[in-house]
From TrEMBL, chain A:
Stated family: Belongs to the ubiquitin-conjugating enzyme family.
PROSITE patterns (alphabetical): UBC_1 (PS00183), UBC_2 (PS50127)
Active site: C90 (glycyl thioester intermediate)
Top enzyme class: transferase
Protein name: E2 ubiquitin-conjugating enzyme
UniProtKB/TrEMBL annotation, chain B:
One Gene Ontology molecular-function label: zinc ion binding
Catalytic activity: S-ubiquitinyl-[E2 ubiquitin-conjugating enzyme]-L-cysteine + [acceptor protein]-L-lysine = [E2 ubiquitin-conjugating enzyme]-L-cysteine + N(6)-ubiquitinyl-[acceptor protein]-L-lysine
Superkingdom of this protein's organism: Eukaryota
Pathway the protein acts in: Protein modification; protein ubiquitination
Keyword annotations from UniProtKB, A to Z: Membrane, Metal-binding, Peroxisome, Peroxisome biogenesis, Protein transport, Transferase, Transmembrane, Transmembrane helix, Transport, Ubl conjugation pathway, Zinc, Zinc-finger
PANTHER family from the UniProt entry: PEROXISOME ASSEMBLY PROTEIN 10, PEROXISOME BIOGENESIS FACTOR 10
Organism whose genome encodes this protein: Hordeum vulgare subsp. vulgare
Gene3D superfamilies, alphabetized: Zinc/RING finger domain, C3HC4 (zinc finger) (3.30.40.10)
Protein name, entry field: RING-type E3 ubiquitin transferase
Residue ranges occupied by any RING-type domain in the UniProt entry: 335-373
Length: 157, 389
């Protein structure tokens, strides 16, 4: 508990210092609870998620960093490795391949990488996975782009 | 709903004497029992959360997700204030109170609370927690920024003397009134106090939280006994409830819970007394180690000293290095697991170095190197006693 708190404080400090280092990731710690974080990430360019702004919710266990943080998408996203309803993310480093050398910041980076490189063989969103596996790249991309427009873009008009 | 019945039903044991006098006067409604008060509070919480959620949605649509996330605390404040202003503030029952057939009264004569009292309650309920949280988090972040505080200071600064000159010039420019010297003196005083608070805060924060926890628990205990004020805010505003529904003859009482809470509080108190000896020693050592660094530099004991292991660092005089932020050396000898300076550097067979505790704990979890995933065993870890990094 104390160790995790100390480490999260370090990460918080690091995030504040490097605020401008990675403009695609904005990590915000809950004011009252250091075990709850929110991240706002930008969809990577040249993917159907380009232009979208996605919100992630981090819930960090007390045994962190021995156990991985629990991360899920708040913003709806059409992606084979993200559960469409719950936002749960299927990513090995958040499960059995976790290493304590990962930080919240690098987890965000990994999630952005996952958005750019979907893994169709371990789908949480079967529709999306099936589109990719059947080779219908255009279908996948247009669906993903549509949901990015619908859910992840600030409405201007 | 007769006059005689409620006296027996609702009389809190602690006020037995006072009640006998009141009972002679005709009183129509019994004091609400704990179950109703609690159920009403739960209902109100969930309705207030609904309003907050709606506000958040509105914000998200109007200003985008980023703004909504950045101002989520303010939105919460807005939602709660809206809910209580529209219900209690306008002199009506809240939805929860209506559901449970209870109504607010302020005095023992059963009169409804005055508007001023209601506003006081709303302030206590919504704004005070918000402000407390706000100020606390602000001070914590000030503490964290102590090293690089030049980045974003508006009126506070890391140097008291600089702060004073700054503030006095500010007032000079903005207000050309005669009372400016007094104002600036006031400001500099506030400034000094603020600095003092920022420096002391890391050690005070857990204490303060403990105190609030204790206050809430004590309040709950009293509530279980006398059944008057479920929230501290209601106690502060002096608003309690009467039951206006159909009288039931059998209403559960929560005294037994109060007794348990009392026991718990006693045990906690005893433990605190026992520990206070220890912590007073620790804090005196703290003072000594930070005393050698003049407070005029604005640098306090590192923020992290709210957890035990860094405090122990201070005793060894290592955290000074940490706090003074000698980036070059500290980044080189940092442990990638706790992100702090390595304690008892320990090497794996693959050549990566961590703290002894960090890598041992991880090795219990999973026997592989956190950085390169080479398999490791407990016995292959080597603590590098004679290194100088
Ligand atoms: Zn370490
Ligand atoms: Zn290694």
């Amino acid at each position: 508990m104390q160790a995790s708190r100390a480490r999260l404080f370090k990460e918080y400090k690091e995030v504040q210092r490097e605020k401008s280092a990675d403009p695609d990731i904005q990590l915000i710690c809950d004011d009252s609870n250091i075990f709850k974080w929110t991240a706002v990430i930008k969809g990577p360019s040249e993917t159907p998620f380009e232009g979208g702004v996605f919100q992630l919710a981090f819930s960090i266990p007390e045994q962190y960093p021995l156990l991985p943080p629990q991360v899920r998408f708040i913003t709806k996203i059409f992606h084979p490795n993200v559960h469409f309803k719950t936002g749960e993310i299927c990513l090995d480093i958040l499960k059995n391949a976790w290493s304590p050398a990962w930080t919240l910041q690098s987890v965000c980076r990994a999630i952005i990488a996952l958005m750019a490189h979907p893994e169709a063989d371990s789908p949480l969103n079967c529709d999306s996975g099936n589109l990719l596996r059947s080779g219908d790249i255009r279908g996948y991309q247009s669906m993903a782009r549509m949901y990015t427009r619908l859910a992840a873009m600030p409405k201007k008009e | 709903m007769s006059a005689g019945d409620p006296a027996g039903d609702a009389g809190p044991s602690s006020r037995g004497g006072a009640r006998a006098g009141v009972a002679a006067r005709p009183r129509r409604f019994p004091t609400a029992a704990q179950p109703e008060v609690m159920r009403a509070a739960e209902k109100d919480d969930s309705y207030a959360a609904h309003v907050t959620e709606a506000c958040r949605d509105a914000f998200r649509h109007l200003f985008g997700t980023r703004v909504a996330v950045a101002y989520q605390n303010e939105i919460k404040l807005l939602g709660q204030s809206l809910y209580y202003l529209l219900t209690t503030g306008s002199g009506q029952q809240t939805l929860g109170e209506e559901y449970c057939d209870i109504s607010q009264v302020a005095t023992s004569h059963g009169l409804p609370p005055t508007p001023a009292r209601r506003m006081l309650f709303i302030l206590y309920q919504t704004t005070v927690p918000y402000l407390a949280e706000r100020i606390s988090s602000r001070i914590v972040s000030r503490g964290i920024y102590m090293d690089d505080s030049q980045l974003d200071n508006h009126h506070e600064s890391d140097n008291p003397s600089r702060g004073i000159t700054e503030s006095s010039t500010n007032t000079n420019e903005s207000s050309r009134s005669l009372s400016f010297s007094m104002l600036s003196r006031l400001r500099s005083k506030a400034q000094a106090f603020w600095l003092w608070v920022v420096q002391k805060w890391p050690s005070m924060l857990p204490l303060g939280q403990d105190f609030i926890q204790l206050a809430i628990r004590t309040n709950l205990m009293f509530f279980y006994f006398e059944g008057l004020y479920y929230h501290l805010s209601k106690r502060g505003a002096g608003i309690h409830y009467v039951f206006i529904g159909k009288p039931m003859n059998q209403r559960p009482r929560y005294q037994i819970l109060g007794i348990f809470l009392l026991i718990q509080l006693c045990i906690l108190g005893a433990e605190r007394l026992r520990r206070s000896n220890l912590s007073s020693i620790a804090s005196s050592i703290n003072q000594i180690s930070s005393g050698s660094y003049p407070s005029s530099t604005g640098r306090s004991v590192p923020v992290l000293n709210e957890d035990g292991n860094i405090i122990s660092d201070i005793r060894r005089g290592k955290a000074v290095d940490l706090a003074s932020g000698s980036e070059a050396s500290s980044s080189k000898s940092k442990c990638t697991l706790c992100l702090s300076t390595r304690q008892n550097p320990t090497a794996t067979t693959c050549g990566h170095v961590f703290c002894w505790n960090c890598i041992m704990e991880w090795c219990n979890e999973k026997p592989e190197c956190p950085l390169c995933r080479t398999p490791i065993t407990h016995s292959s870890l080597i603590c590098i006693y004679h290194s100088d990094f």
